[in-house]
């Protein structure tokens, strides 16, 4: 059993009858009073983020996890189907287990976190960014270029992305999977 001193970014722990991944942590040693660890935890089952403070030396239940690369195949009304890149076995995940799933396109490689004990899937993580083609873009408003003006665009997966005025249908763009924001236009 680990203690709060062993907390590091990426560690998965069992807390409040759920499994959480440590996103941020800070060891604090105030001048007065005992030391503690301030953490930001993200649930791997539902994606909810909570802030929690552990006292120094507090016992935590570490969960052993493994990550594997899977290829996104297709989706149906309930969830997504993936194929293991090593043994070609298939895996099914519910729609709630993946954030910004509207940015996934067929053939995309996704990292799936599995519980080591029984290899049950806990969550899936998209790459930091994806390259998508714009299929439809609103017309830009002329004379509105003094500031960073944005317009709506629909990409090949059906997701809506706010893009700069110069982006047109047919352009390829790089999109952040964390918040679904435009990063840059991709030159081919």
TrEMBL record:
Metabolic or biological pathway: Protein biosynthesis; polypeptide chain elongation
Taxonomic source organism: Chryseobacterium kimseyorum
SMART domains, A to Z: EFP, Elong-fact-P_C
Domain spans labelled Elongation factor P C-terminal: 130-185
One Pfam family it belongs to: EFP_N
Recorded family membership: Belongs to the elongation factor P family.
Record-linked PROSITE patterns: EFP
Coiled-coil segments on the chain, per record: none
GO molecular function, one term: translation elongation factor activity
Record gene name: efp
Protein name per its UniProtKB record: Elongation factor P
Subcellular localization: Cytoplasm
InterPro entries with a match to the protein in the record: Elong-fact-P_C (IPR015365), NA-bd_OB-fold (IPR012340), Rib_uL2_dom2 (IPR014722), Transl_elong_fac_P/YeiP (IPR020599), Transl_elong_KOW-like (IPR013185), Transl_elong_P/YeiP_cen (IPR001059), Transl_elong_P/YeiP_CS (IPR013852), Transl_elongation_fac_P (IPR011768)
Keyword tags: Cytoplasm, Elongation factor, Protein biosynthesis
Keyword Acetylation in annotation: no
């Amino acid at each position: 059993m680990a203690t709060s001193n062993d907390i590091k970014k990426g560690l998965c722990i069992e807390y409040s009858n759920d499994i959480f991944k440590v996103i941020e942590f800070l060891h604090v040693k105030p001048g007065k009073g005992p030391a503690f660890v301030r953490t930001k935890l993200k649930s791997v089952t539902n994606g909810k983020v909570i802030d929690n403070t552990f006292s120094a030396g507090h016992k935590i239940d570490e969960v052993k996890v493994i990550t594997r690369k899977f290829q996104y195949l297709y989706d149906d009304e309930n969830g997504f189907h993936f194929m293991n890149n090593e043994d070609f076995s298939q895996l099914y995940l519910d729609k709630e287990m993946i954030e910004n799933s509207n940015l996934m396109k067929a053939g995309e490689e996704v990292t799936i976190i599995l519980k080591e004990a029984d290899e049950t899937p806990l969550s899936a993580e998209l790459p930091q960014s994806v390259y998508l083609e714009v299929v439809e873009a609103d017309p830009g408003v002329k004379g509105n270029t003094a500031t960073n003006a944005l317009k709506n665009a629909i990409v090949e997966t059906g997701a809506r992305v706010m893009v700069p005025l110069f982006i047109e249908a047919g352009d390829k763009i790089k999109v952040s999977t964390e918040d679904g924001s435009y990063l840059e236009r991709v030159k081919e």
